[in-house]
């Protein structure tokens, strides 16, 4: 844009087609030079009275009527029509190599939608107080715009979608982009025999209630829809959001990446038990901003121990919250044993005894509890709070994750579950280079619901909205 201004151009159009602006080029964005801004400020009212049209036609008319000089910069990716043949029509993305090494550093992403202002408040993780506290604790926190339905629809229509990663990931100063596409085989219709095979894998290997995996959620319903996007309206766009976060963190060289969804909360009993609460919270949720920094410190330390002293292999992903489990977890502290022996156990018991119902005086602060160990997980649905280690991030770059896209709740469990149910996805992962099962675990002292809850889980059992209005409503709800 600066070069265009030096050339005397009043407007720089980012064009997705051949030719120049108004001569066959389809402009996707515009940069206005200072002189044009001044002209528009002086003449906008008169120009607006001339008629209503699409944005692109309006800008072209401005160029002609004001006698402006316009430059055109071709976009990296072709327009929609040029990619109708599918993902192979996209040019190859840049090599996926980490640009730097941030040894020991933690990247935190909070995924949210622009119109969910109701979730940018305390005590949710996306509230300004929580974000400030995490940054004050020394963590690199970034708010990530969630991928939306229009991106999912474009992916579906085109067979593939070029998608820019976050600003920090780049090659030679240019934004890095990846090719988003569904995993190989997702588009093949499911026949009766295969549907029975898939259903049998679920019924025979998973816990009672596992039919929830393939309940019809609208759309195609049943097994046929589940091998594509789990029938949830936002499953694919959710996966794209997490993929953008994880691949950016991997390219930026972070040792750990912690991905939150914007409705994550810390329950008061957990904050008291862990010693994160400052002692003032008595309701269902902890409102102490510092609890988030303390939670992340404990999670990262537990993950560090899990990558150096794990008995079943190094940890790949730590679930800060538990979700809906379809396979039983492993033995308690089966991945990493807690420290302290009998004395440590006594301290943990004392910490539990000093919870909010047993506190001897108002406003007292419970001590920080021992970390305990790690218990290995089986196939579990959860996306609101997950901490990935460097080993996992390198795997996701190698596939790459963006080119084996599926529903987020199913993707990660297929990497670590003991008996993943979708043979199609396993075949696609192996073809992409996946060779080793991951190790997923949760804090052994909180295998019921974990440390971080999804707000919807709490409010669905509560008699009220906990004073948070619509914050607990799903973004798939009709109102949103």
Model description:
With 480 residues, the protein is of the alpha/beta class. It is 34% helix and 16% strand. It contains 15 helices and 18 strands. The strands form 6 sheets. It has a 7-stranded mixed β-sheet with strand order 5-4-10-16-12-17-14, with helices on both faces. The protein has a 3-stranded mixed β-sheet with strand order 2-1-3. It has a two-stranded antiparallel sheet with strand order 6-9. Strand 4, helix 4 and strand 5 (140-145) form a beta-alpha-beta unit. Helix 4 (128-136) packs across helix 10 (290-306). The chain starts with a helix and ends in a 20-residue tail after the last helix.
Descriptive keywords:
alpha/beta, 16% strand, 18 strands, 15 helices, 480 residues, single chain, three-stranded mixed sheet, seven-stranded mixed sheet
SSE topology:
Elements: H1 2-6, E1 11-15, E2 27-32, H2 34-49, H3 55-65, E3 70-74, E4 102-112, H4 128-136, E5 140-145, H5 149-158, E6 161-164, E7 170-171, E8 174-175, E9 177-180, H6 192-205, H7 222-229, H8 235-251, E10 254-261, E11 264-265, H9 268-274, H10 290-306, E12 317-319, E13 324-325, H11 341-353, E14 374-376, E15 380-381, E16 385-389, H12 390-398, H13 408-416, H14 423-432, E17 440-443, E18 453-454, H15 455-460
Parallel strand pairs: 1-3, 4-5, 4-10, 12-17
Antiparallel strand pairs: 1-2, 6-9, 7-8, 10-16, 11-18, 12-16, 13-15, 14-17
Helix pairs in contact: 4-10, 8-12
């Amino acid at each position: 844009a600066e070069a265009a201004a030096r050339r005397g151009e009043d407007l720089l159009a980012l064009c997705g087609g051949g030719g120049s602006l108004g001569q066959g080029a389809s402009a996707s964005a515009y940069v206005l030079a200072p002189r044009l801004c001044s002209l528009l400020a002086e003449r906008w009212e008169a120009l607006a009275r001339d008629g209503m049209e699409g944005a692109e036609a309006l800008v072209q008319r401005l160029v002609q009527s004001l006698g402006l000089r316009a430059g055109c910069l071709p976009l990296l990716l072709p327009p929609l029509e040029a990619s109708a043949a599918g993902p192979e029509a996209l040019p190859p993305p840049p090599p996926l190599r980490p640009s730097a090494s941030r040894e020991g550093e933690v990247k935190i992403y909070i995924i949210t939608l622009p119109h969910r202002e109701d979730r940018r408040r305390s005590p949710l993780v996306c509230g300004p107080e929580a974000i400030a506290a995490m940054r004050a604790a020394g963590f690199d926190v970034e708010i990530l715009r969630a991928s939306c339905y229009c991106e999912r629809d474009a992916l579906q229509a085109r067979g593939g979608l070029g998608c820019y990663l976050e600003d920090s990931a780049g090659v030679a100063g240019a934004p890095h982009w990846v090719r988003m596409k569904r995993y190989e085989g997702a588009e093949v219709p499911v026949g009766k025999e295969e549907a029975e095979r898939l259903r049998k894998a679920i019924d025979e290997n998973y816990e009672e209630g596992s039919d929830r995996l393939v309940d019809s959620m609208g759309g195609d319903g049943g097994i046929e829809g589940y091998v594509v996007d789990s029938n949830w309206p936002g499953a694919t766009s959710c996966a794209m959001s997490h993929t953008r976060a994880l691949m950016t963190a991997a390219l930026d060289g972070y040792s750990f990446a912690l991905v939150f969804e914007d409705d994550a909360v810390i329950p008061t009993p957990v904050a008291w038990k862990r010693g994160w609460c400052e002692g003032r919270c008595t309701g269902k949720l902890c409102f102490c901003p510092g609890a988030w920094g303390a939670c992340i410190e404990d999670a990262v330390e537990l993950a560090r121990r899990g990558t150096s002293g794990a008995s079943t292999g190094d940890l790949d992903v730590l679930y800060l919250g538990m979700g809906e489990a379809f396979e039983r977890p492993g033995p308690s502290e089966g991945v990493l044993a807690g420290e302290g022996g009998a004395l440590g156990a006594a301290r943990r018991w004392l910490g539990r005894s000093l919870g909010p119902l047993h506190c001897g005086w108002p406003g007292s602060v419970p001590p920080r509890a021992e970390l305990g160990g790690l218990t290995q997980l089986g196939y579990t649905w959860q996306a609101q709070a997950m901490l990935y280690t460097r080993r996992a991030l390198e795997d996701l770059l190698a596939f790459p994750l963006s080119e084996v896209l599926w529903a987020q709740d199913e993707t990660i469990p297929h990497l670590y579950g003991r008996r993943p149910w979708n043979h199609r996805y396993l075949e696609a992962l192996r073809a992409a280079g996946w060779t080793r099962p991951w190790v997923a675990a949760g804090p052994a002292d909180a295998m019921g619901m974990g440390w971080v809850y999804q707000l919807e889980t709490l409010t669905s059992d509560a008699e009220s909205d906990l004073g948070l209005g619509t914050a607990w409503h799903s973004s798939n709800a009709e109102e949103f």
